[in-house]
């Protein structure tokens, strides 16, 4: 077989269909957010990022930077191994205790990434206890992968549809172990899930609840604990999963839950046992970030002020977007090539960077851009973005909302 020809052929198909992902070479500087410098063959240029998950700018917060610098200076860069060998640093223990406190749970456990946390926990619980899974149609790829690896029975319910969820639950023996897996905010639609209703169904049908709060921790709730805290249902969630790569501004993942459940995962999950532990400096940076956000709402307040303003300006210019109640604002283009043309136009003509979202991240025909305001954007930046979008819409005869 001519492997190279096969690879080239498949890649060319993706390029023709508009689904190929081009990676910008970016360089960010402290104090410059939400700007970055793009490196190209012709040099560098300053661009404005509108697809950043660092919603509260904590990746450049002085407390976070100091904590990471101090940690490296005192303890070095690496952890030295997996958690079960010599890689459990006091920084990990300190952060796990803070996470348990944040989510009002007895215990917490760190993972190297949020993806690994979902995949490892879900696959381990499923394979070890024979759970039946009830999973939202738009759950993260890591959740889907974890369920697939578990090789257990699964039901996929319609996105945020509690009636369909109950229809699926009724098909399962009431005494069979089951888990409802869902997210608090869905990154591709911006939809806030009906947490209270799902928790009520879990209680009714004797199911555990597994909530992915990765886009919500730090951005919602009085202490930044997420949507579950904001809605007052943290106590009804059995397993909370999240990470540090978005609002927290660092990197890593975790779960929080009961002592026995967390210890079970720690003991049996290959994704925890056989991987190098989180760098101590990352744990210290995450600790500093969460500690700040637990006592300060300033960044959250500015973030949501900007979200409200951007939505209002889009409505004013009749640009349709999906408003699921969250801070992520998807604008559906519906065509991969047109979507790439839009993002190329924004970058080349307005120095605005937004990554096109195409298949397989979203289904064919649902291609979109995803606007993510942060606390570092200004009203003037928002007005410039909406003006640029409007000009593309008009010049390319894209239908505007009535």
Walkthrough of the structure:
This protein has 402 residues and is α/β, with parallel strands linked by helices. Helices cover 43% and strands 16% of the residues. The protein contains 14 helices and 14 strands. It has helices at 3-17, 62-75, 90-102, 114-129, 141-150, 162-170, 195-204, 227-231, 259-268, 270-273, 280-295, 298-316, 336-350, 379-395, and strands at residues 25-27, 35-40, 43-49, 107-111, 132-136, 154-157, 178-183, 208-212, 239-243, 253-257, 329-332, 352-353, 356-357, 368-371. The strands form three sheets. Strands 4-10-9-8-7-5-6 form a seven-stranded mixed sheet, sandwiched between helices. A four-stranded mixed sheet has the order 1-2-3-12, covered by helices on one side. A three-stranded antiparallel sheet has the order 11-14-13. α7 (195-204) links the parallel β7 (178-183) and β8 (208-212). The longest helix has 19 residues, at 298-316.
């Amino acid at each position: 077989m001519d492997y190279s020809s096969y690879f080239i052929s498949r890649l060319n198909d993706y390029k023709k269909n508009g689904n190929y992902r081009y990676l910008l070479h970016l360089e960010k500087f402290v104090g410059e957010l939400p700007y970055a410098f793009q490196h190209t063959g012709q040099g560098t240029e300053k661009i404005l990022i509108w697809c950043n998950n660092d919603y509260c700018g904590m990746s450049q917060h002085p407390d976070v930077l100091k904590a990471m610098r101090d940690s490296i200076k005192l303890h070095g860069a690496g952890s030295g191994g997996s958690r079960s060998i010599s890689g459990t640093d006091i920084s990990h223990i300190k952060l796990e205790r803070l996470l348990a406190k944040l989510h009002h749970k007895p215990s917490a456990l760190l993972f190297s990434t949020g993806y690994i946390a979902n995949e490892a926990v879900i696959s381990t619980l499923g394979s070890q206890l024979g759970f039946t899974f009830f999973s939202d149609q738009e759950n993260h790829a890591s959740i889907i992968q974890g369920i697939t690896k578990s090789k257990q029975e699964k039901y996929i319910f319609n996105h945020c549809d509690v009636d369909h969820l109950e229809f699926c639950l009724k098909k399962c023996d009431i005494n069979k172990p089951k888990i409802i897996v869902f997210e608090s905010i869905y990154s591709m639609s911006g939809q806030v899930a009906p947490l209270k209703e799902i928790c009520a169904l879990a209680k009714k049908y004797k199911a555990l609840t597994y909530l992915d709060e990765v886009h919500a921790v730090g951005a919602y709730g009085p202490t930044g604990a997420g949507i579950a805290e904001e809605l007052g249902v943290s106590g009804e969630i059995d397993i909370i999963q999240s990470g540090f790569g978005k609002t927290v501004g660092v990197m890593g993942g975790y779960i929080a839950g009961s002592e026995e459940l967390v210890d079970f995962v720690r003991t049996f999950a290959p994704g925890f046992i056989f991987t190098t532990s989180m760098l101590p400096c990352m744990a210290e940076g995450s600790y500093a970030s969460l500690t700040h956000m637990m006592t300060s709402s300033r960044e959250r307040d500015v973030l949501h002020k900007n979200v409200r303003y951007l939505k209002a300006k889009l409505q004013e210019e009749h640009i349709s977007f999906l408003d699921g109640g969250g801070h992520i604002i998807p604008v559906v283009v519906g065509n991969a090539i047109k979507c790439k043309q839009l993002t190329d136009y924004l970058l080349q003509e307005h120095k605005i960077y937004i990554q096109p979202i195409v298949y397989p991240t979203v289904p064919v025909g649902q291609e979109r851009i995803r606007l993510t305001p942060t606390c570092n954007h200004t009203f003037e930046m928002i007005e410039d973005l909406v003006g640029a979008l409007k000009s593309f819409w008009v010049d390319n005869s894209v239908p505007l909302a009535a």
